[in-house]
Design brief:
It is built from no helices and eleven strands. By secondary structure, it is mainly beta.
Length: 123
Amino acid sequence: QVQLVESGGGLVQAGGSLRLSCAASGRTFSSIALGWFRQAPGKEREFVVAIGRSGDRTYYADSVKGRFTISRDNAKKTVSLQMNSLKPEDTAVYYCAASYGVRWLSTSEYNYWGQGTQVTVSS
């Protein structure tokens, strides 16, 4: 069992930065891949970024490449998402998720989800 708790969301102006964090509980943190997804009102939840178990592999959605950076600390059981150059279209609820699978780009690959944190980017 893995429990995930996100923090760090908020309101920021376009061009600004936010850092999201996700703290995990459970004994298998180093055995799971981690991802961030987001869901805007009226839209489906979409993939943002994922990181492999040891942190050596990362995958980014095209829409955030060059602006967002994911990292993980297995000793602290945390995963972070640094978001720079934010745009109004980045506005969404951001979810941290954990996967025991080998493909990390879809919601169906994830076993555990956090409750989400709101990110609002004003123009």
